[in-house]
Structure formats: structure tokens, C-alpha cells
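User: These chains co-purify. Model them together.
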Amino acid sequence: MIAEILTIGDELLRGEIVDSNKAFLAERLLRLEIETRFQTSVRDDPADMRDAFLRAQDRADVVLVSGGLGPTRDDLTLAVLAETFGRALELHEPSLEAIRAFFARLGREMAEINAKQAWLPAGSEVLPNPIGTAPGCLLEAPREGREPALFFCVPGVPGEMAKMADEQVLPRLEARLARAGRAPRAMRAVLLRTFGLGESNLDHELRDVAREADVALGFRTAFPDNFLRPVARGASAEEAEARLAKVCDAIRERLGALVYGVGEETMEQVVGALLRARGLTLATAESCTGGLVGQRLTAVPGASAYYQGGVVAYANDAKRELLGVPQDLLARHGAVSAEVARAMAEGARRRFAADLGVSTTGISGPEGGTPEKPVGLVYVGFAHEGGSEAQELLLPLDRERHRALTAQIALDRVRRHLLGEAPLAPRFGRERAR
Amino acid sequence: MIAEILTIGDELLRGEIVDSNKAFLAERLLRLEIETRFQTSVRDDPADMRDAFLRAQDRADVVLVSGGLGPTRDDLTLAVLAETFGRALELHEPSLEAIRAFFARLGREMAEINAKQAWLPAGSEVLPNPIGTAPGCLLEAPREGREPALFFCVPGVPGEMAKMADEQVLPRLEARLARAGRAPRAMRAVLLRTFGLGESNLDHELRDVAREADVALGFRTAFPDNFLRPVARGASAEEAEARLAKVCDAIRERLGALVYGVGEETMEQVVGALLRARGLTLATAESCTGGLVGQRLTAVPGASAYYQGGVVAYANDAKRELLGVPQDLLARHGAVSAEVARAMAEGARRRFAADLGVSTTGISGPEGGTPEKPVGLVYVGFAHEGGSEAQELLLPLDRERHRALTAQIALDRVRRHLLGEAPLAPRFGRERAR
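Assistant: Joint model of the two components:
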């Protein structure tokens, strides 16, 4: 089965927006083992749209069309589609009612212009839009001596497109494949979030795991993390699920605590859940990250249950006066040192009466480096009931990524402590030669 | 002149990456007043590529091809292009040298596989790649009775694509247009960053300004900001520049301090530059934003010259002990109150010995609201030599956007003070009825 994705809109052809719908739809088709062979975009121009429809009818069995379903004059998709395949537009009363109800929920009256969205090609199947005004449709374009080409039309608004693809388009495609005796094998996939090992190392570590029959292992870098996406297929959902569970177990056994989360889970959510489960509290003392660690911790709803607060100790005075870092430590070792990182973490723990304290102090650049303490040098301090420690790293990155990686290391330090794991070996940075 | 953008790669058709090259190239073509009429993507498949090349030759005058110039077996763009238009591939010695030199700069030897990238279609013009190994090329595909179609091939790596589009493709296209007596009118554009007025209000405020001859005014929402992009054209660069300057003056006169920056300038950079110019220092006290304001201030290199630090006072104890907020204020008014916001800003100013203090305290949700103090309520406090004040806002947004908008209001408060402007009237939130 050959698929084409066709997106329509002047704004795409003028480069005003990046078209993410194509990637979304292509990924969804792959779930049914349907490969997208063509992606096309044209303007809101009837002649170009017509050409694109005819070409797609000829070369593709399923055509996903997005865009041009809005209420304004330049939204022409259904009118041109109907004309191209010799259909009239007919008023679909239930859709008109749905549009009216949509506006009523917002406490507004439907503008007359929106009534246009309820006119659909005769003989097409309506695809309801639960979150917007534009219904979609499925139109079968006949082809001599072949199965008809299936045109699925959905809105261009990404949220509506995604919801309708998942709820309207994919189930219909899957049912048709099943009826034709070409049911796609069941697919189950999961995203595993890892931190602390580069993509090529992950690939190497997992090479034999990935050879597992019928499990594809995808990699994606999302700095400073690396994501793994095992995709398992099987004759039944149970079989695919069992395969997926098996490969996930193998990955976790191989990588241990390098896997920190699943799906949408962020590092700060994982840290928060662990703190909450253990009944422990945390405080932060940030120099080079400037509030980034605190900001991430408090991005999680309910963080006040375990996060006490922190000091952004950018100036030395602040380190001394708000965190109680002794002046002689600052004078002897400098603000960027293991000693000061430990004292900062201890100070945060003490000043906020928290169970755990974590700190950052480093030189994120681009200025401020010296031969002895170069740009990229950073210390992550950690204090707990049993004492304190600091990790020294040299991260040769730009300012933004230096700060982002440092914040992730700090959060991961807390996580590993709560799991009873050793601190991460700094494979991604160069450990500093002394 | 009709343009087509053609991107090539299995990863696009599988939806593994969102293709941003198309939008980039389309925007660049518009600078030469060339409209993109078709965008197409195909797999690394010789038959599909050949079809796409032939179709583009027929329907477009200029074809920008990106992707498939890499060293591996599935990088076939130049081989298929050459074959489609009856050319041989020829070794281009200077390109081979450039590739060798590229690796030498990295202290590595060129792998044999990379030599393939120096084989280019006979008769094509080489487009050097200053930051990667793959040179591009310009091939003229002849057409009967018409000017040849121009195929510009560039790599798919976005950074290389962008640099080669700007340095190799656009100048050549512009020169050709000029030779054909169809020189594009000069274009000058600028991005004006505004904060504090919604898109529809901006549109309304600037309607007559935008009517200015030959100046198009684009709007783009980048929450919590709104960007304006006036685009001026003229017979000469001077004329376009004069038009642009005139419209920018008119916009600034109309909007005043609502325009906070130009181009890539961020709010935190503007605040930092103003603090530096005035020789003043700033400290922060953050509750609901949890470190976001500090993080943004310290994202600017050299922030230590004016940012002293801050307290993330998430727990009440922290507000009291680290910022000196009186217990009776907390007890009488609650942590989310104008009184506590002022005391926090004053405390930050005092504890960090800074000239200015800014604070946030609010309920970002989704939990934690009460009938008296609903989710969305937030206070931004500000303290300076002359006293302190607090602004009360009700921002009905999700947690992430509530925090982002609050942080922007806090930074903008500092900016307006430094400019001698009144605090922003909270048109974007509902001011709280009391």
C-alpha cells in the first residue's frame, strides 16, 4: 500500500511555518506498516490542488490531506476535491449542528461564514472533529481496474490534525487493511529516556539487544539526554507486548540507572516522585546554572511537598552570607572549586532545613576562564545526612548547553542518591586532569 | 519565475524528523520575490527521485534540492540527477582537496568513502561547502523552447543547507535575475519584539501604519511576546532602508515601550544592558517562578556584572528566614499577597545589597487555588531606592505559561523602571476584581 501526504496552504509555501504535520502523519502510517512514498505541499490554488489530487490518485493508494478546511475564502480543499472527482458539495446537517454546538460551548454564536465548513463532498464519509469546527472526510476516488484511492482530509491545525488522525483516520485504515486480509501486525512501542551515555556508546552497548527478532531500536538525541525507542511487532497485541517487555527488560539490565524515565517523564518529575516516596526534602544552591535547577524542580505541580527552595548565589557575597560558605574557603580555593561546591550544598541543606542539598558552581563561558580554571569547568556539590561531596567535570560546550548539562547532572546526582546508586561516571565530559 | 523545493531522504518520509529546510528555503526565495509553488519530498529511491527531477524540470524554473549528498550508499542525489539529465559524474579535484583539508582540520584522515562526495555531474557548477564535506552543485537542465531549469543541490544538514543557501544559491539567483532584467526589488526587514499587547490589539493599533506603501507588516506570536516584522521593498537598498526606518519610527511612536527589543535581543539581554549602562545591580526573590527569572538573567554572558543573585523562596520558612519577610505579614495576608511580594522584593534587595529587587509569588496551579485566591493569581513585587510596590494579576493560563508570563512581567517591570516608564498595564491578564 503506497501512501502520499499532501499538505495545503500558502503559509507553508511561503515558509511562514515549519510543517510538522507531515512527519506526524508519516510516523502514524508506519504504525500500520504503511510507508509514505511521497510528500507534497501546494498553495491554496485550485489548479495546483487539482493537479496534486489527480497525481496522488494515480500514484498512491491512500492520501492524507491536511489543511484548507477552514471557514475563509482561501480554504478550498473540499470544494476542489469534490470538483476534481466529479462530486457536488452537500450540506451535512449533523456537522452544521456540531459547529453551532461548538460555538455555543464558548458562549458565542456561529458566524455565517462557518456554515461553509458543513458542506462536504457527496458520497464521502464524514470524519467528526471533536475539538474544532472543521469536520474532515474520507472520499474514495475510483481508479480503473484498481481499488479506489482513499483521500482522508483533516484540518491543518496540528492539534486537530493529530486527534483526527488517531481517532478517525488510523482506525478506518486499520479496518480496511484487516478486511483486505492485510492486517498490519500489532505494534507496541515505548520511549525510554536515558542520561549519561552518548548515542554511539548506547548503540554499541545495545547492539546485540537490538538484534532481537522483530524489535527495531530507534535512537534520538534530545540534549542532554538520549532517548531509545524500541518498536516491537507481533501477530497479536499480546505477542508484540511480550516482545517489547522482553527487550525493555534486556535494555534496563544492560543500562541500569542510565535509564531514568519512560515516555513523557522528565528528570525533575522522577526526582520529585522519588523524594515524595522517601519523604525527603531538597534545597538548591546555584551559581553557574543561575536558577535553572530550581526552575525545573518547580515546573512539576506539587513540588512544594519536597522542594524547600534555593539560593542563586551568583556573587561571592551571596555565597558567604546566604549560604554560609566560609570566606577562607572562597579565598583559598576560589568560587569554582570542589570545596566551595560542597560548602554551598551543605549551606543550602542547612539554611532551608532540608534533607538533601545540591549545588552548582562553574564557568559556563564564553568569558571568565583562566589557564588554571578553564571555561567549561564545573563542580556539582551534594550534601546529605551522611556528609557531602563534589564532582568535578570539564564540559566543553557553549554557555547554554553547559548550563543545561550541569543542571541535569545535578538532578541526576539527587536521583542516583535516592536510588542508592553511585554518582554518574562523567563519560560525556572530560574528567579534568590534575 | 516558478520555484520548487525538493527534499530527499528516507528519514523525512518515515517521519523521523520534521523537515524545516523547506520553510527556510521558501522564506529565502521570497526575499528575491520568488514564490515557491511546489514542495516535494521523496525517499532515497532512484526511480522516485528521477520522477521528481523530471517533473520539477517541467514545472519549475528553479529547483532547490536538499539532502542525499552524504558519503553513504543511500546518498544518491547527484548520481541520479546526473543520470536523469544525461551527464556523467566527474571527479572534481578541488572538492576532493577541500574534503581532505576538512578532515585534516579535525586531525583526522579522510575515509575513502568520503571521496565519493567530490564526484559531481559533468558541466555543473560546484557550490563549495565551507562547514561540511559535501559540496553542492548547480546544474542547468535544458528545456525545449524555454530557459533551462536551474537545479541547485545543497546538503540536508540544516546548518550546511542554510549557509550554502545564503552564500551560494541566493547570490547566483540574484545575479541571474539581474542579467535577465528581472532584478528583484531590494528588500529590508527587521524583527521588532513587543511585550504587553495581544496580536489582535497590535493589528488594530498598527492598521494605518501597515497601509504604508510597499511595507508589509507580519505578526508572529511567540508566547508571551508578539513579534512584528515589517518588510520594505524598494528600487534600491537605500530606498528600502529608508522605507523600513520610516515604518519602524512610526511603530515605535505608536507603541512606545511596548517594543522592547530588535532581532535576536531577548528581554533579559535588554534588562542586562540597561542595568549595565546605569551601573545598577539587581537581586531576585522567586516563589512561583522557582528560579526562572534568575535562570534567564544568568543566561546572558557577563550577567555577574549586574545580577547579584536571588532566593528561590518556595517554602514560607525560606521567605521568612532568607528574605526576612515578617511572620505576621505571612500570617495576616498569606504568602500570595501584595504585602508579601513587596517584602520579598525588599528582602532580596537588602540581603544581596542590590540597587533593585524583584519578586514573584502566585498560584501557578493546577492545584492550590481557593475561592479567595484562585489559580492564576500572581503578584510581582518591585523594590528600589525610593520604595517598593506590587502588581496584582490574574493570569488564566496553564502552569508552564503562567510561570513564563510571570517571569516576563517581572523582567519587564525592571526594564520599565530603568526607562522611567510606568509599569505595564496588565491588558493580557484580567486585573483582579476586589
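Chain B has a mean pLDDT of 92.
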